[in-house]
Amino acid sequence: AYTKLMPTQWRTIAPIVGRTPSQCLERYQRLLDEAEAKEGLDLTGPAGDTGPSADDVRRLRPGEIDPDPETKPARPDPVDMDEDEARARLANTQGKKAKRKAREKQLEEARRLASLQKRRELKAAVKKKKKGMDYNADIPFEKRPALGFYDTTEEKNRQPEMTEGGLINFVPARNAQLNKLKQAEQINKRRKLILPAPQVGETELEEIVKIGFAGQNVKAVVGESDNVSSLTDYTPSSTSLPLRTPRTPRTVAGITQTPRTPGTLLSLRTPRTPAAVDTATIKQLRAGLLNLPAPKNDFEIVLPDVEGKEVPKEDTEGIEEDASDRDKKLKAQQEEEAVQRDLPRPVNINSVFDSFEEVSDGDSEIQKLIDIEMLTLLRRDAVMHPVHGSKPANLDLESFEEFPDELIDQVKKEIDLEFTKVTNELSNEDFDEAWSQIHDTPVTTQFHSQLEANRNVMIKEATKATKLEKKLNVILGALSKNVSETFDEIEQAKIELDSFQSLSISEREAIPK
């Protein structure tokens, strides 16, 4: 039974049966030999010679080694072996080869036996063909009728519809069911009814229902007390009463019933102008915007010629300038250039004075006088015009001397003449030499090299940063997308939660208590 499910899988069958694989194989071959002997299916040649049986195949020839012995002989004690025998055993490979050959032979024999078994099983399973006619399948002495005038191929090809139980469906009932399905499809294909908007909305209906419920609640509350008789519907008495003059005149408004404002059949809100009124104007405006030409970006910016034009001066000839303003202008013109232009100036004058004393030790007398005059100017500016955010300096101004404007103008002219003279005398070589003396120092070269090194480091770090940014974009792109989608879902869920909460509150208010 197991060989049919698992052919030639003796290693799998052996533990199930409780035998070794070789024992299972021997038993199976014996069973096949017995079956062949019973059925007379031995392998015989043309001369009547029979092939070797399974026992003959399994018998070992002299000199062969059993590949799968049930009990292996004990290995000899290595102590008793001499050196030559040990060397011969180490160099001998004949035993392994013999085992391999025997194993291959056994596998080939197993394949042959499996194919033989398969052939036998297929031969036994084939339905034997009988000679003559099969009366179960064929019709004896069949004589087919002649063909008629009409084509009957459609009737032959038509097959009755079988249900799950094997019964044929009733065709008229099937046709009626198909007709019902078609009618349902036609009903679904009908257009929706276009009805006008309701005059009374859902909110107005809810208001009306609430008013009715409120009246019923009032009746129920009052009905618990002793005033039930006062709330009953009174029927007018049939007996006529004598006419009496009322003590107070009746109001005219009370004769007819005044309708409720707002009415129960109208909405509580003032109807707004329908949006369909302005659709024509909106369409016209859109059509006009679509007909506009495409915008052009080719334009030039032309600056006005300010230099060529003279700025018109205000007519101030007729207006006399104030004396105080004039004095302020003159006083501002007499101040130093640094104060007039609001240039940066030193805050601590004493430190400047100490530095000048250190530098001016080896200078000429003229340079010393210039430095002293400059220091006095700085002191005066620190006292009279201190720097923004600092306090006026507490210095002595007795040594300061005021000079007239004519003398100051003359000094400026002399300075300009001297400056032009000195600049004309200087050559490019002197300028280059001074430039090299100032810039070609070890400190500047060191700073240049340090600047280049810093630039190279910046370039390397920038390239690293760009590469890392690209990697992070690749890695975190999907994550950021998921995060954004999650945030969108959270926002949508919040909106839905708020809407449902407001809906529940409105429903609770609408439910009568």
Description of the structure:
With 513 residues, the protein is mostly helical. Among the domains are: 80 residues, no CATH class; 66 residues, no CATH class; 29 residues, no CATH class; 72 residues. Helix content is 55%, strand content 0%. It contains 17 helices and no strands. The mean pLDDT is 74.
Fold blueprint:
Blueprint: H1 2-5, H2 10-17, H3 21-39, H4 54-58, H5 83-91, H6 94-125, H7 153-157, H8 171-188, H9 202-223, H10 279-290, H11 323-334, H12 337-340, H13 349-359, H14 365-384, H15 405-425, H16 428-439, H17 442-510
Write out key terms for the chains shown.
DNA binding; mainly alpha; flat
Radius of gyration: 62 Å
The helix-and-strand class reads: mainly alpha
Question: Biggest β-sheet: count, sense, barrel?
Answer: none
Helix content: 55-70%
Number of helices: 17
> Beta-strand percentage?
under 5%
Which parts are unreliable, with pLDDT below 50 for 5 consecutive residues or more?
none
Strands, count: 0
- The topology string of helices and strands comes to HHHHHHHHHHHHHHHHH
The rounded distance between the terminal residues' Cα atoms is 80 Å
Global outline? flat
GO molecular function, one term: DNA binding
Domain HTH myb-type: 1-36
Biased composition (Basic and acidic residues): 55-78, 325-341
Region (Disordered): 37-83, 228-263, 309-341
